[in-house]
Design a protein that fits this description.
By secondary structure, the chain is of the alpha+beta class. The protein has 12 helices and 13 strands. Strand 2 and strand 3 form a beta hairpin. It is globular and about 60 Å long. Keywords: ATP-binding, Cell shape, Cell wall biogenesis/degradation, Cytoplasm, Ligase, Magnesium, Manganese, Metal-binding, Nucleotide-binding, Peptidoglycan synthesis.
Amino acid sequence: MQNGNKLHIALLFGGNSSEHDVSKRSAHNIYDAMDKNKYDVSLFMFTKDGILLGHEASKKIFDGVPEDDIIAEEYPKIDMSDPLAPIKAFQEVKDIDLFYPVIHGNLGEDGTIQGLFKLLRKPYIGSGVMASAVSFDKDMTKRILNQAGVRNTKYILVTPENRDTMTWDYISAKLGNSVFIKPANQGSSVGIHKANDAASYNEGLEDALRYDFKILIEETIEQPQEIEISILGNEIPRASKLGAVRVPASDTFYDYQNKFVDASGVVFELPVVLSDKLTKEITKMAIDAFVALGLKGLTRMDFLVDKNDVPYLGEPNTLPGFTNISLYPQMWEVSGISYSELIDQIIEYGLAEFERNNKIHYDFQALGDERVGQKKYNTDVVD
């Protein structure tokens, strides 16, 4: 630990995903909420090219210096022929007690950065490699949810290999005349389209394939309520009160524009008042999904509720946003946990999970001289 009893936290943000700027906003709020009497915080930003910058350069960007200006100064100092160049700045983190990634989307929520932390043998907040990777992939998430009996929307998977057979006639016959098109490995509504006919389907699919090679075509829940719930914990997770997102009737869905660019027309209801039956069902579904997916630390679960009060789990967000309009911390605030207390608990769960995993034993047995059986080749086999 640095400076006596203070924990030294490495706060990571940015990334080479479409949510780069969202991550920067989240990191600012988390940094401001951290109790500086408990934590010393070092900042590390991944650029849009996926290159990690050290604390000094990251702090300048954090404080408002144009990112492009700092990158122009820093890149000439980096030996790009070094295979470790993208993460060379981690040389500064010898005394780090815990990594706090706030990297949304690619590299942050897909298990990549978690694998690096594991190689570095350092604690980190949030879910592990497998749970992060599976939960980031909407197709894999749905497979596990279906196996666990957690209700979610019907879908068909489209890839470049089967695209020609997945015509609008085929899709609409299976899922109806209104569908959503979603890249399997993206977040914040990037690459998502609603289609009502062959033209909008083909156009939306073409764009979605720019972001991933796996595309989900999902059935549409007409006039749904968008309900969110926050989960916190490790082996015994607990759930917050529920929140609702009310988008303007003129908007097709809760997209990137009204999430992050202009949310002035969006109404956030905290906590949302639903029937006891529906509240309990959503809460149980969220907890069941958290456990089934092997998640740890924190996750926001997004639901759609149809006109008959039937809830469908949309997707988990394993490193949810902490921007000014993000509901994850706000739902805990209305549930009695302050922003600062929430950060403390997330860090405590990260440290606890690291200690738990350190109890796992690995046995290694020397092989000695190699001994193999006799090989028999069948030369008379006809191809």
